[in-house]
């Protein structure tokens, strides 16, 4: 491998090839600290041309590539294996805004730009890039694309699939697919960019993207409301949609066990508790006062247990911080069996009721920490306790997963709404995914990457 590493150093510069264990350490462990790898090295190309030549070098030397963005994956999709023969490739140096076309509501950015950097670039032009995640300060656009990230505003704006107009991708043979045009309509054959969104780096290296922008809202109304049950929450969701249509930007839910975790690690920050908390946000043009008044008028016809409507931007940010910190709070709270599930929104009450009952029957005293994006049916349904004396929570993971996923698929749902598959869920994908769909995906993988050098050991 010495010749290979020397060739890589000559291509991208010695300073951008990390081989020392201390330098590569941040790239070897996933965010949840569940998967630990040992890479051959970490390469940081400085341009699309360098990335393409790097892929060609890897192919000649039969070195596998593990693409890695901000390393915020919860499924181990960006972690190398322990063989010491895989090259981690990160686009951290490719973070330029290549073009911002405000009249076309489009921005072309390189894959290493953080989500927050893209949001700020859009804001400076009076536009909104609406993807919003708790990790937006560190996650990168390439990773957002590779996992088809969703976040809190999917209800109004959609996932990365809906937010992407074009991609630039280095294919496994080193050729570059340049499909960055900012078109809303193009019927010249297959939409090739969709092959790579959600593929978790198994079909190529995304180096740049053209993304949709929207008018920057001038008014927001944000409320935290307590209700008695998930059935009431879904009734409220439908009522808010009927009243406000696409001005309803976010509809998040936080159940009681999750609130208790917040109280343990952020004491005094929850203004009140209830069986379910709803975090609701409207956005529009105009001014905050009119939108707040409209929301308050609608709320006056409901029967919440408790509630607060933000009266300033500072209060709004405080409410959102409660929601955004939940993942970090869970990490501090200890290990959990995580489920990034989605069902039709109409089926959420049945899922919560029936799956919860099945888990409690199997594990009396089980703690179910549920929260997430109820507006699009996506629930983060995490088990942080199963039974007394269980030294390793993950001993129960296969049985817990089977209970949860059986209920999810019975209701027409999915086991991966926005976090991907990675190393965590391939066996479950085999169990639940339509075999023909898997066959077609593997056919595409074999056609593009016959030597299986792009992110091997994951789910394709």
Draw up the topology in text.
Layout: H1 2-12, E1 17-18, H2 21-24, E2 41-43, H3 48-61, E3 64-68, E4 86-90, E5 97-101, E6 106-110, H4 115-124, E7 127-128, H5 141-146, H6 154-157, H7 160-163, E8 164-170, E9 176-179, H8 193-196, E10 205-212, E11 214-215, E12 219-227, H9 230-244, E13 248-255, H10 256-265, E14 276-284, H11 288-299, E15 306-309, H12 313-324, H13 326-333, E16 340-342, H14 348-362, E17 367-373, E18 378-385, H15 397-410, H16 426-432, H17 435-448
Parallel strand pairs: 2-4, 3-4
Antiparallel strand pairs: 1-2, 5-6, 6-10, 7-11, 8-9, 8-10, 12-14, 12-15, 13-14, 13-17, 16-18, 17-18
Helix pairs in contact: 1-3, 10-13, 14-15
Brief summary of the model shown:
With 460 residues, this protein is α+β, with helices and mostly antiparallel strands. It has 4 domains: 2-90, Uridine Diphospho-n-acetylenolpyruvylglucosamine Reductase, domain 2; 97-215, Uridine Diphospho-n-acetylenolpyruvylglucosamine Reductase, domain 3 (2-Layer Sandwich); 219-326, Alpha-Beta Plaits (2-Layer Sandwich), CATH 3.30.70; 334-425, Alpha-Beta Plaits.
């Amino acid at each position: 491998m010495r010749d290979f590493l020397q060739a890589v150093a000559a291509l991208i510069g010695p300073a951008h090839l990390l081989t020392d264990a201390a330098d590569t350490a941040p790239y070897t462990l996933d965010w949840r600290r569940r998967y630990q790898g040992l890479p051959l090295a970490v390469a940081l190309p400085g341009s699309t041309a360098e990335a393409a030549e790097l892929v060609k070098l890897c192919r000649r030397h039969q070195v596998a590539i593990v693409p890695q963005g901000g390393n915020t994956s919860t499924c181990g999709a960006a972690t190398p294996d322990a063989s010491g023969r895989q090259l981690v490739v990160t686009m951290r140096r490719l973070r330029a805004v290549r073009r911002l076309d405000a009249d076309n509501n489009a921005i072309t950015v390189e894959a290493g730009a953080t989500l927050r950097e893209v949001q700020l670039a859009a804001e400076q032009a009076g536009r909104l890039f609406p993807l919003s995640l708790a990790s937006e300060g560190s996650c990168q656009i390439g990773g957002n694309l590779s996992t088809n990230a969703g976040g809190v505003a999917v209800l109004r704006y959609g996932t990365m699939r809906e937010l992407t107009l074009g991609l630039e991708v280095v294919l496994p043979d080193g050729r570059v697919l340049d499909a960055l045009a900012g078109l809303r309509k193009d019927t010249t054959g297959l939409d090739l960019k969709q092959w790579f969104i959600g593929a978790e780096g198994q079909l190529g290296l995304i180096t740049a993207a053209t993304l949709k922008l929207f008018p920057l809202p001038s008014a927001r109304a944000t409320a935290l409301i307590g209700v008695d049950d998930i059935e009431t929450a879904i009734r409220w969701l439908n009522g808010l949609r009927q009243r406000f249509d696409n001005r309803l930007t976010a509809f998040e839910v936080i159940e009681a066990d999750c609130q208790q975790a917040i109280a343990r690690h952020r004491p005094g920050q929850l203004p009140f508790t209830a069986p379910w908390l709803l975090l609701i946000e409207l956005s529009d043009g105009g001014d905050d006062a009119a939108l707040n008044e409209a929301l308050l008028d609608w709320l006056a016809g409901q029967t919440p247990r408790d509630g607060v409507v933000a009266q300033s931007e500072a209060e709004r940010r405080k409410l959102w911080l409660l929601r955004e910190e939940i993942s970090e709070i869970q990490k501090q709270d200890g290990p959990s069996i995580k489920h990034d599930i989605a069902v039709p929104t109409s089926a959420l009450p049945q899922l919560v009721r029936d799956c919860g009952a099945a888990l409690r029957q199997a594990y009396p005293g089980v703690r179910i920490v549920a929260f997430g994006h109820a507006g699009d049916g996506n629930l983060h349904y995490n088990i942080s306790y199963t039974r007394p004396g269980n030294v390793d929570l993950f001993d129960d993971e296969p049985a817990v997963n089977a209970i949860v996923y059986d209920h999810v698929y019975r209701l027409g749902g999915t086991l991966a709404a926005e976090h991907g598959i990675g190393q965590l869920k391939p066996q479950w994908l085999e169990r639940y995914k339509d075999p023909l769909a898997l066959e077609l995906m593997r056919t595409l993988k074999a056609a593009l990457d016959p030597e299986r050098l792009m992110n091997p050991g994951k789910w394709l």
